[in-house]
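In this section we walk through a basic example: taking a raw amino acid sequence and producing a predicted 3D structure, encoded as discrete structure tokens. The instruction is simple. Fold the sequence below.
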Amino acid sequence: MERNIKTLDVSVIGSEVPESYFHPKLDNFKLGEFLWVKLEKDNYEKLVKVRGINQKVSKEIKKIESYRRAHKDNIIKVMKNMIKGILWEMGYENVKLANFEIDVDKGILKVDYISDKKLNLHLLGSKFAKLLHVRVELNQIGARDLAGQIGWLEPCGLIACCKTFLKGKLPSISIDMARRQYLFTAPERLTGACGRLFCCLAYEFEFYDEIYNKLPKMGAKVKTPNGIGEIVEVNPLKGYFRVKYDNIKYEVINIEENKEWYIISEPNVGNDTSENKGSINDDGIEDKIN
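The resulting token sequence is shown next.
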């Protein structure tokens, strides 16, 4: 026999089909809140969002055996797993989900994600919204942005600069900036926890860029009063370079004290300057030539 009964209308997280349940104390529920609900004859809980209280005419209504309010962290965890699964199914395996923030009262889920390619996932927001029953805002961020939010410990022993004082002012870094500072080493030794080049490469770049244009390059041929020689060491901090002549003699020339030299030829493209023993090593210590 059909009967008229008040029910709790809910949206099941992960399903587009709304459901209605019976509970004797409907005043306990608040519109828009998230609940873990266990129904009679079920041996599991499901996450639902309260849509309101309605009047139903039905022969049989599912009854709530027990319920508990969902914590914000648990809501995010469930939604994160669902979003990851959908992205995987759609071929976005390389998308890394970073930060999740949910406003339960307003029904808004903000998601930051990282990808090697420029992606526009905003169109997926409506698809996620139908399953999660919240508005989903997707925002692509860079690896440095993530490092700035987390604050990893860097090789220098300090917390990442982008976390402490470079907030929102991340400089543009290129490998050429490292070369102009005479850091001839593997790129992976110049990268931070974010996988990008150290932001600190920009701190003294102005000085190095100026001195770089005054000093000859490693391997270049120069003419001095003592003859023609090859550059085997460059020290930008002290402002000198070392020349090796054909008679295996060396000369140190300070660019401020000695102006009687000029470049004959630039080094050959493809020379591995990292093998020159006279460069500044990775620890900032000057390598001497015996």
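Looking at the output, two observations stand out. Residues 214-275 form a domain with the SH3 type barrels. fold (CATH 2.30.30.140). The chain has four domains: 3-69, 72-141, 145-208, 214-275. In the next section we compare this with other chains.
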